[in-house]
User: Fold these one by one.
Assistant:
Number 1:
Amino acid sequence: MHMWIWWGHEFGDFMIYGLKVNTVGGLVATCFFCAGLAIFFEYLKLLQAQHRSRQLYYRTQQIRNICPPENTQLLNDREISTIEKISLPLIDIMLWIFTFNLGYLMMLTVMLYNGWIFISVILGSGLGYFIFGQKFMKINLQNCQMIRSSFCMKDCDNPDEEALRRAKKNPTFTRY
């Protein structure tokens, strides 16, 4: 077990007993696998943001149903089904579990202190952020606008206190 960064290609067992990396080809395949894990990690973060956006959309619909503005019609709004109420938190939990455990798996690969593995994880994370980062930021900005539009009823400097009080009393409205 190395306690400093080393640049060899003979790991012995890699993460699982019996999965031996003793050749340069095995090292290259392991580096591509670790980079792929890092890219997938960034994709899972994007999926989490998309799912949170969907949850936020449903919550803003609930708030708008509680306190509708004067100039809107309620014909397009629909109630959230029981299946959606159950599936949204379950999907959130599953995405969190996958992201959390994949993060630990990448940490364990980096803890081998092999320089090639370390560089492949960094490059994979950078490539994943390059691919999914703009979408991730766009979703977060849309979420901020959705929050602002749902809580700024009459005047953005002074949110409607009565609407906020009614939203807190509604049992179907849960805070995140």
Note: The first strand starts at residue 12 and ends at 14.
Number 2:
Amino acid sequence: MTGKSSGDLNHRHTHLVLKYAVVSRLILISLILLWRSLLSPYDTSASINPSCLSGSDSGSASVYFPRLASAIEDSIAWDSVYFVRIAQCGYEYEQTYAFLPLLPICISLLSGTVFAPLIPFIGQRAVLGLSGYVLNNFAFVLAAFYLYRLSVIILKDSEVALRASILFCLNPASIFYSSIYTESMYALCSIGGLYFLMRGSNNFATIWLALSGFARSNGVLNAGYICFQTMHRSYEAAFVKKHACAALLVLISGALRSLFIVFPFIAFQAYGYFNMCVGGTSDEMRPWCKARLPLLYNYIQSHYWGVGFLRYFQVKQIPNFVLASPILSLAFCTIIHYVKLWPEVFVSLGFRASSPNKELAASSIPLERSAGPKSVGFSVENRSDAGQGNSLRRRKPAVGEENYVIQPSEDEATENRGFKPVTIVPFILHLVFMAATAFFVMHVQVSTRFLSASPPLYWFGSYVMASHCLSKRWGYIIWTYCAAYILLGSLLFSNFYPFT
């Protein structure tokens, strides 16, 4: 296949992914409107909107279309109430600091600029809600786009990447990606950041990954990808190229990038401490203010939501464990599949090559041209050699020129690049930590949306659906699971019934 024809194929697949992303959002929004018209909400307290404590809001002003305004406001369900309230009034209460500020800031900016002319017609709160819906659905479409591009770089197979991206468009947590929740913003920032990291655009990647930590607390874990990159590059500089100064520079650069990613979350904790603790007397201070390491987020999660290690292991929570069992099972199978495929690579954290398990590799993701990394650390190729087919000439890069992985051009034939198992390692390690946290620490039913932005789930799901070694029923089970949770989620969540 020529580079031009492969580029055309990638463009067609990109358009197809965008089409699926847009259509899936339209279908989900239609389902929400349908269920809202057929059923009465279980809880209507979200429509109560007291004035901001600062008295700066104008939400009580009369509007031209009160019924439309009421419909939008009544659709603001569950945690969406917090995000809209923060966008409107700021952080007024201690428990609101559990919700990080990226989404409220974006909602406030969009409602105050693009949608500001709509305020006289439907009111401020309805405009805030509308801004949140538009923002998150648009972010989801971009997240699907970046997942496809990231998958092509990692898997070296546009067909597998396409299936994985379509599966993401219909993922079981879809209701949250079209609601005023942080899932869409987090997915966009984290997947987009990883895409730029794999392309070698480290500065863009660091900014995007930092924004993911400004959207959700677990975004700080994305610093682990930088640490993994730094570990391999510093090892190569110190022990392969025998260049101690270069290794030191790599370590310093990696440390600074990692700190930059976790800084937004730390800064927000400092902001909460300043607002809640500074200026009050010792008797007025909340307990967490007096702690040696005053972490507001941890206190809120434990005090208000009962989050903690094994605290959710109760008989009455068995239904919630059942609700989360599909996504946790999928995560477990994903981890086992890739670890069994390249055990030596995972045990050595990518420092040792491994021959793939032949039985598993028979119909798995592309393994042609490279059974494992050819040298310690990440394999590097000269960018100027791109597009020369299988007869690529390699040169030894200058110190500091290496990238995280191979650098394909935007429209380059993916068949010209060999799959590197080492690139999968940090994704699986990240999934292991996330799945363990969801099962042992968090409210387990949140696992469905907590893990929904993890690319390996969709890569493995794509493999299952196309595998000749597995029964087709497993592919049908995955699609049925996604469809059932989309229907169930749109029905329950939109009408204020508990769902993940």
Note: Residues 306-352+417-466 form one domain.
